[in-house]
């Protein structure tokens, strides 16, 4: 089968099917064999692995996954790509393509049926507009994950691994780091895609924590506190939490919890570590 990492082969298959790029699906197909190899290496795909691919497009990365993994399930939302995938993947017997919206697939059942419930490796070249919902869905639904290796907008990758006090630090940084260890594998310039996006991309690998990074009494409360503190980023933490419609604590209760945590009552949310947010959540959950 022609290697789709070669731009000439990609153009040929797109012309053959008169494929029209769908802006609503944020389609940018990878056309760089070095980047494809880096993704396979970063995800540590081996012959025993079951891989879930999100958004296979025309099957460029899927071909590489099939060459290296035991089994691949590729979930593609665009029905116009299904006949192309049948063509580009016809020589592989270890791949199943599902024409579905990944956010509507019962992944736990799929993994139980196809991989005996054992942890899977997720690989994706994610459309920028839906990166965060997909990644959070994988973690919040407690899908059994070995690692998640995804191509995302460079700015989003930077936010995922940012620390307190930096301009990139925010709710996404904390949510990802609560569940996993982020590591940027490679920066990928626009000319590695067809069509060329307007922004740079990055491959980031997220390795789930084997044990929870922090001990929590109420996980949902932690995320409400994080959202509230970054929704009004320029406000002090006290005012951000007091003004949130998701929280019902009094200003005094919030101030006391912040002081008991050893923090200044004028501190802003962007200065807190994940551990400090967790400490605050545990103190406030005792009041409920």
Looking at this protein, list some descriptive labels:
288 residues; Rossmann fold; seven-stranded mixed β-sheet; two-stranded antiparallel ribbon; 40% helix
Please provide a written account of the structure.
Helix 6 (131-140) packs parallel to helix 8. Helix content is 40%, strand content 17%. The radius of gyration is 21 Å and the shape is elongated. The chain folds into two domains: 7-208, Rossmann fold; 219-285, rRNA adenine dimethylase, C-terminal domain (Helicase, Ruva Protein, domain 3, Orthogonal Bundle). The protein contains twelve helices and nine strands. Helix 3 (60-68) links the parallel strand 2 and strand 3. The mean pLDDT is 93. It is α/β, with parallel strands linked by helices and 288 residues long. The protein has a seven-stranded mixed β-sheet, sandwiched between helices. Strands 1-8 form a two-stranded antiparallel sheet.
């Amino acid at each position: 089968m022609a290697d789709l990492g070669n731009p000439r082969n990609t153009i040929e298959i797109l012309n053959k099917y008169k494929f029209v790029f769908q802006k609503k699906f944020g389609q940018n197909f990878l056309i760089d064999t070095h980047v494809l190899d880096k993704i396979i290496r970063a995800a540590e795909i081996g012959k025993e692995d079951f891989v879930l691919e999100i958004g296979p497009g025309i099957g460029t990365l899927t071909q590489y996954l099939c060459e290296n993994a035991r089994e691949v399930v590729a979930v593609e939302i665009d029905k116009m790509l299904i006949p192309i995938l049948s063509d580009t993947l016809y020589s592989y017997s270890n791949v199943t393509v599902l024409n579905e919206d990944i956010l509507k697939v019962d992944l736990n059942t799929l993994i139980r049926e196809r991989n005996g419930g054992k942890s899977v490796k997720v690989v994706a070249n994610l459309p920028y507009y839906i990166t965060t919902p997909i990644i959070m869905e994988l973690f919040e639904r407690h899908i059994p994950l070995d690692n998640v290796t995804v191509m995302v907008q460079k700015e989003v990758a930077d936010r995922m691994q940012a620390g307190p006090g930096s301009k990139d630090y925010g709710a996404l940084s904390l949510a990802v780091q609560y569940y996993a260890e982020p590591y940027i594998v490679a920066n990928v310039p626009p000319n590695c895609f067809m069509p060329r996006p307007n922004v740079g991309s990055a491959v980031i690998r997220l390795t789930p924590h084997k044990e929870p990074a922090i001990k929590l009494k109420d996980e949902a409360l932690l995320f409400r506190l994080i959202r509230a503190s970054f929704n009004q980023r320029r406000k002090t933490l006290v005012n951000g939490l007091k003004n949130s419609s998701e929280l019902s604590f009094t200003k005094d209760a919030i101030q006391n919890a912040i002081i008991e945590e050893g923090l200044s009552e004028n501190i802003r949310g962007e200065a807190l570590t994940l551990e400090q947010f967790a400490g605050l959540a545990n103190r406030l959950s005792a009041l409920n």
